[in-house]
Amino acid sequence: MPSLSFALETHPGRKRPKNEDAVGYALTPWGGVFVVADGMGGHRTGEVAAGLAVEAILKSLKEAEPSPKALLEAFERANALIYAEAQRPENRGMGTTATCLLLDLPYALIAHVGDSRAYLLRGEEFTLLTEDHSWVAERVRQGLLSPEEARTHRWRNVITNALGSFPQARVDLLGLKLFPEDTFLLCSDGLSGVLEDRTLKEALKNFPPEEAARRLVELANEWGGPDNVSAVVVRLPKELPQGQRPYALPLEAAQGSPVRLKLGEEPEELPTQVLEPPKRPRLSWRDALLILLWIVVVAYILLGYFRP
Ligand code: CA
Q1: Could you give the number of structural domains in the chain?
Q2: How far is the centre of ligand 1, averaged over its atoms, from the C-alpha of 150 (Å)?
Q3: Count of helices and strands (H, E) across the chain
Q4: Distance of CA 227 from the midpoint of ligand 1 (Å)
Q5: Which end is more exposed in the chain, N or C (fewer Cβ atoms within 10 Å of the end residue's Cβ)?
Q6: pLDDT tens readout for residues 223-253
Q7: Considering the domain boundaries, does residue 174 fall inside one?
Q8: Which of helix, strand or coil describes residue 42?
Q9: Across the strands, what pairs with 102?
Q10: Band of pLDDT at residue 267, cut at 50, 70 and 90
Q11: Distance of CA 20 from the midpoint of ligand 1 (Å)
Q12: Contact at 8 Å (CB) between 39 and 22?
């Protein structure tokens, strides 16, 4: 199988004394697993929570055959581990975001809790795949705040869902079929909260993963580096293996919104609908009219020709 190219960067930023973000990966026979976690809590607890999440998720997934179920179980284990740790008085308030890309080429599964993000660059199209589980993002979805207001709101860091905060977490699960050279960016809010989407896109488009990840972290720091900052960039090879998966991809294709599952409550059968890859551009109205006109003209000429 042609190899992936990828890079992982994490940095404390300019304002925080320590780095409570964690990143990690494992290559597997099916592609690989990539994780970003952004921990929270006092003292060292955020750091511990993020580290535990990355470690537990990778441990579960590096040998398991990839599937939506395996991915949910990995999150379930990480949640249980961190929740147990958070019960100690000194760890009060401990929790972490986690965004995980599980490659099962030519497919990808993504599981997500919190306000770290996964983006996909496919050709010219740059898409945010995940929804933030944050107070401001919920207000934006309800139309109560504009994205610009959310960016600077004093509660912009408040997340509404985290691994380890509750006995059960809500996990968003997405699946998609991949194209050659698709490029993923996983990042913490220290990156996406500071840089605009078009800056993220430009870096992914113009540089190989290693340089893109390094540049993005540098840029976030140039813009003040107010938070810990992490970037994981993964580019798929020019050729992908072909094949069908034994499972259906979790996504409500109609709305394209992620399937939301509460850990421990996953149904026997996951919601099943395969997300079709974006369609090739369809015939524009102008082209359709021109073709129609052409048919009319030809028909008119032919009619004239055959008429006695
Ligand atoms: Ca953060």
Answers
A1: 1
A2: 15
A3: 8, 12
A4: 6
A5: C
A6: 999 999 999 999 999 999 988 887 777 764 3
A7: yes
A8: coil
A9: 33, 109
A10: very low
A11: 8
A12: yes
Between the two ends of the chain, the Cα-to-Cα distance in Å is 67
Give me the domain span that covers residue 124: 5-261
What confidence tier does 155 reach under pLDDT thresholds 50, 70, 90? confident
Residue 108: exposure state from Cβ atoms within 10 A (0-12, 13-18, ≥19): buried
Pair of tokens at residue 82? 């961190």
125 strand-pairing partners: 122
CA distance 186 to 231: 6
Task: Say how many Å lie between the CA of residue 300 and the centre of ligand 1.
Answer: 68
- List 303's β-bridge partners, or say none: none
For 44-92, the pLDDT digits (tens) are: 788 999 999 999 999 999 989 999 999 999 999 999 999 999 999 888 8
Cα-to-centroid distance, 170 and ligand 1 (Å): 19
**Is residue 252, in this structure, part of any structural domain at all?**
yes
Residues in the chain: 308
Which of 126, 204, 115 has its CA nearest to residue 151?
A: 115
Cα distance between residue 226 and residue 79, in whole Å: 27
Q: Quick check: is 275 in a domain?
A: no
d(CA 302, CA 308): 12
Structure-block tokens of residue 180: 């050659």
Whole-angstrom Cα distance, residue 209 to residue 215? 10
For the entire predicted model, the pTM comes to 0.82
- Residue 162 inside a domain? The answer is yes
Q: How far is the CA of 266 from the centre of ligand 1 (A)?
A: 28
